[in-house]
């Protein structure tokens, strides 16, 4: 198995109404829900629409073995907004934790994976969304989380 996609960190579900989705999950006993911690500033931040990225709202619930993220993409154009319009609510991406963000992104490039969005902070943390929708059915993300 590729070290890129070995350690599942989270599943991200795009929703139309973040508060309604959180309330439903809480009614099932899933929670507590917290705002997604955006972390520190990025040295590199390449996304299709920076204003849309900043306007997205996320809530996260840490489970025993992984995290669930709910994403309300807002009204501005973004890959998440387009997914919602074309497919309705559902799983947009799977996020995998990696020990080295830069090495993982380079390995993805070697495997021929295109990049939708990427970000890197001074401490080496960050993310890279690979365009795997056609072949994997979802976007696959690698990320190095802050400690």
Automatic annotation (TrEMBL):
What Gene3D superfamilies does its record include?
A: 2,3-Dihydroxybiphenyl 1,2-Dioxygenase, domain 1 (3.10.180.10)
Question: Which Pfam families does the entry mention?
Answer: Glyoxalase_4
- Residues of the VOC domain: 7-145
Which InterPro entries does the UniProt record give? Glyas_Bleomycin-R_OHBP_Dase (IPR029068), MMCE/EMCE_epimerase (IPR051785), VOC_core (IPR037523)
Metal-binding found in the keyword field? yes
- Keyword list, A-Z: Metal-binding
PROSITE patterns per the UniProt record, alphabetical: VOC
Question: In its UniProt entry, what is this protein called?
Answer: VOC family protein
């Amino acid at each position: 198995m590729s070290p890129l996609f070995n350690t599942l960190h989270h599943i991200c579900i795009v929703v139309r109404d973040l508060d309604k989705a959180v309330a439903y999950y809480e009614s099932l006993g899933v929670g507590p829900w917290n705002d997604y911690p955006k972390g520190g500033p990025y040295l590199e931040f390449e996304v299709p629409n920076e204003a849309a990225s900043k306007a997205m709202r996320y809530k996260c619930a840490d489970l025993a073995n992984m995290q669930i993220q709910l994403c309300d993409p807002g009204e501005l154009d973004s890959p998440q907004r387009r997914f919602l319009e074309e497919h309705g609510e559902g799983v947009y991406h799977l996020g995998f934790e990696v020990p080295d963000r830069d090495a993982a992104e380079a390995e993805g490039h070697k495997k021929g994976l295109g990049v939708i969005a990427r970000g890197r902070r001074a401490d080496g943390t960050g993310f890279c969304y690979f365009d795997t929708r056609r072949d994997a059915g979802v976007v696959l993300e690698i990320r190095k989380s802050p400690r």
